[in-house]
Please model this.
Amino acid sequence: MHEISLVKNIFGSLDTVYDQEQREKIETIHLTVGLLANVEPILMENAFEAVVATERQEYKDCQLLMQILPIKVYCSDCDSESEIENYKFVCTHCGKPNNNVIQGNELLISGVDIK
Ligand SMILES: [Zn+2]
Model:
């Protein structure tokens, strides 16, 4: 379950920005997750709860909010972007196969709310 290490990495990133006292005041962690980032939101939430309960109790009142980003490709033939549906990697304008992904691999902390 690689979500456990992802959650630990998120907390590790926050450690570099916030001290213990500030971390206890974090109410919400906002994550931006691309559809290609190989992250299951449910597993992510379970991992978050498990890590908080076992080693990160300063986050016990904190929630994780995930914003899922769709996959987008750029087609140089028609100079346009397409949103990929059902993992069908084609340009929706000209119909050509396309794997020039410009969005969808993201996994980042997009913000935190502090009390
Ligand atoms: Zn095209």
